[in-house]
Task: inverse folding
């Protein structure tokens, strides 16, 4: 069965999108990319530090994974747009994970700045992947302004609280006309599996893997978790029942 | 003249271009983007971008993130 | 990394134990065993029906999986013991999944009959795998009488409600000196992943796969789900935090 | 004589053994176990188990389950 | 202990705000207002129907409860503002429950139209009580534009699903500088109790009471539920512990 | 509406049963009994300490509440039976809260010792109120041996985790022929409200009140919480719906 | 002349005011607000609001609502 | 003679009864129950219960408990 993820017209070999932040070293990034089988990784744009040895870009190109630059840390549409444009120039990609956060404590998106930035970046030719909250109406607006995907959070970035409101994720999936990527909140494998069972097309996570006690093992766990959830979604689960339902024959019992 | 590069004051020869600055500061310009006074300066344009005293230049590249 | 499941001294190549009940045909049983990669399957003992063509035993032996006969439908220790003895004689195995249920509606185990039957079967040389409720104290008693594993339910058989009380499963795992197998209640992949994350050594399920809309796909989903949960458990998840934790650098931001 | 086999009345020649009954009833005894009047009759013992009129025999085998 | 709710400078004798919609008759409205002890009720503005006998206004004035007109059904800031102005003129109150919904299926608020309408109504002298989603950042914006309260939903209007994301409600409460009213989603008493325990200052509900099998009884239940939750919040609950903690003396045991 | 609780043939004026353990002083016990309006309180039997001033019995008799002695700390049927007999002799009551725990860490009941003790105490003329786990089958057995109520736990004693498995409580309530009292686990008011909504006839709690930051306030909270849950149960809640349901008229909208 | 009142066509004497319309249509104007062609017409202004043919008037009041 | 009372060794006059012991130890016997060597000694029986050297007596009463 062919069940490839297609984002912005590109086929990707994995439904797990990996953020590279939080890893203690490029060696660990290298390890988790390999173990996760991801085909798309996020990076941030920061001031050049001539003293740093090695580049995340080399690691990513060695693995042949696509780059999804983000606008992490931007607080206004203007900052985010400039950052996206610089990323496009530096990395030669029109793809951008659009983050416009309200503050550094919650790291929650600012709905109004986000829609503004998304609309203008789309007009400028970008393929916009917005990091959004789980409001189905905001997700709808982001699609209407031309985003190529919507990426609702399950819980605050790095919290590991999983999916706090599965009902909203289901509402977003039910009416989505672009891929839905669960972004932020995943803490462990079952969170990723649940996201896919709810109908998400992919899962984006960083801390859950990069900050796990054993990042490589957790990367492998997440790869399996995303597959498990996707397969379960396609397989069609049994309904929940209030009462038991025997799985062994109730006839042919011996009289002993 | 003096310009601000990534937030730090930096002295550079009068008439230097953005390309000169990058060449002087960085081993390689691979994966680097630049903004001058809050405007994007496309990579291709650097040789033609003459820097002026007091300008603020931001040189960015990709790092682990997200 | 070698991380084999060992039950009653036997190494098994999979942590997914498959119940064969509920499948519409032996063909489906054949398909789900293959897709699940299981190494151990349960069967029930029922009156011989000379008219039936084909035998579950042939399917199981073709796949080379071990057989775990159950005492499904038994309501008293006496019935369960006789059924176990007949299974041993018929199938030439001392392994038995001990079920002593209280009624046909809830299919819940009867704690008192269960402990009685377990103690006597152990004395008779059986390797007893008791299907039990999620009471940590009952699990403790079952270990003390010599059961080789404890198999607490997540929810009633066939309900697909998942794990209704993860706290009890964690208590059972925390003090268990034998393998813990989550048995009954699993409805979809994320339930199986969670069971393994809670520290269970294996998951036993039937209806979730055999009654899924596409049993073969769900069998593959469950195989991945169990791997995902096991790997996540070994990897060591990030802690849950009430507040966000940035996964992109908070330094080196450009001033734009 | 008459015995009950898996709940149904069944006629069989006087002096028949459990082995005879199984041979008469089943294509094969592979994977089959037997109980006579609520007691397990081990497979190896069948040729020596003489059935008596009115006894209840249960013949079980493995089926899909649980 | 004096623990009065103060909204827009007015003291209210109850923390339960009652929506009058969904009741089968004015008699039922009369009954539930009495049984609930509410001091503030919402109404909607609709075309005058000369044929209708009796007026909700008479019922409300008989009970001496304040009126909070809503802008239910409005889809744009413009519609909502006109409706608020008409309500002010008709009912002689500057208070308005601002609803700007995105569609008639989800009845979810449209964040962008909502903030726009709120800002303009505040400028026009209204006391604005916005019905909002549970996004903490949107709640913050609504406060910044001058709303006198924020009224996040627990779940979609009339769904009875309770509070789907308690974590967001806690985040809103933690930084709120105006009263927080849990609005929409309450299905039963424990939902209202939980809302108050999370730190909400009041609960607004309609269907949970007006569509209950016995509206009068449920109104009394909700009155008690809001009190219970408020008192528990003030009392300071015991911490949750993973392990048991004896409530009977562990010393002085007899040796029997 | 008359809706009195009847236990062992006695009418009680409150559905809140209060454990007196954990309170820092008899003054606090006095305060919480008054604030809670309880009509039944538990006590433990311990060695006489001639040095202690004042007696819990005086406090209870001053409030005119009934006494329910418990067998807290007993690990075997024998210990529990002797303790019950001593309590009967000392306090002149046949009522006993039967606790037979497996260990001092979990404080969880031992199903087998519990049923044994219950059966023998019933035969000895006691009115037995067994503290049990949430296993519906064990609850059934306890009724069959003649217990006058069943008291399943919501969570471990003193944990404040609430009701970990509401599904089991519903199963117990659905088939119970004696009153069901939710005993242990309650941490805050909404837990008690939920217990009553699930159909419990009463709630027994101690630590949630006696160890709260303000025990008197929490006692009042619990009194309101139990009323709220009972009224909601009787009122009949609205069904949960996946989708919204308008509570304001969808007709008569003005065209503005 | 004809005006639209709450979506329905309505005939009224030429020169009628909003106050006339309300008096004619409603038993009481208590708790009623009016909009003419999408603009609020404050209650106090009704006697002075001369209606013109083809205008759309909305007369609203409070009803049970969420 | 010596007996154990609530776990502590205690000297008491030979021939003393359980009633004597309680009277000697406690201000009041209200709400008190007694066990001697693991058997309940009903309150009414105390005057007739002669204590013997080496016996273990438990005197219990109600305390705060959950």
Result:
């Amino acid at each position: 069965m062919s069940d490839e993820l297609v984002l912005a017209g590109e086929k990707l070999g994995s439904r797990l999108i990996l953020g590279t932040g939080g890893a203690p070293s490029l060696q660990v990034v290298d390890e988790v990319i390999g173990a996760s089988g991801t085909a798309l990784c996020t990076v941030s744009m920061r001031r050049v530090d001539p003293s740093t040895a090695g580049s995340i870009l080399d690691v990513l190109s060695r693995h042949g994974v696509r780059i999804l630059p983000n606008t992490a840390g931007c607080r206004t549409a203007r900052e985010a747009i400039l950052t996206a444009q610089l990323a496009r120039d530096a990395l030669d990609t029109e793809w951008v994970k659009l983050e416009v956060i309200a503050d550094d404590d919650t790291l929650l998106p600012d709905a109004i700045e986000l829609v503004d930035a998304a609309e203008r970046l789309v007009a400028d030719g970008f393929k916009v992947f917005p990091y959004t909250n789980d409001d189905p109406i905001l997700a709808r607006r982001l699609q209407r302004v031309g985003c190529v995907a919507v990426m609702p959070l399950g819980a605050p970035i790095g919290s590991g609280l999983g999916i706090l409101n599965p009902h909203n994720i289901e509402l977003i999936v039910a009416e989505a006309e672009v891929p839905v990527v669960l972004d932020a909140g995943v803490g462990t494998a079952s969170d990723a599996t649940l996201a896919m069972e709810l109908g998400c097309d992919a899962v984006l996570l960083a801390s859950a893997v990069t900050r796990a006690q054993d990042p490589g093992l957790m990367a492998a766990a997440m790869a399996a978790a995303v597959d498990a959830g996707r397969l379960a979604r396609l397989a069609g689960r049994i309904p929940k029942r209030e009462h038991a339902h025997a799985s062994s024959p109730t006839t042919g019992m011996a009289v002993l | 003249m003096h310009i601000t590069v990534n937030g730090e004051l930096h002295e550079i020869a009068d008439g230097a271009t953005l390309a000169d600055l990058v060449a002087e500061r960085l081993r390689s310009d691979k994966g680097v983007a630049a903004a001058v006074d809050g405007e994007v300066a496309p990579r291709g344009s650097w040789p033609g971008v003459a820097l002026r005293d007091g300008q603020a230049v931001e040189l960015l590249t990709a790092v682990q993130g997200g």
Observations:
- Chain D has a mean pLDDT of 94.
- Chain D has one helix and five strands.
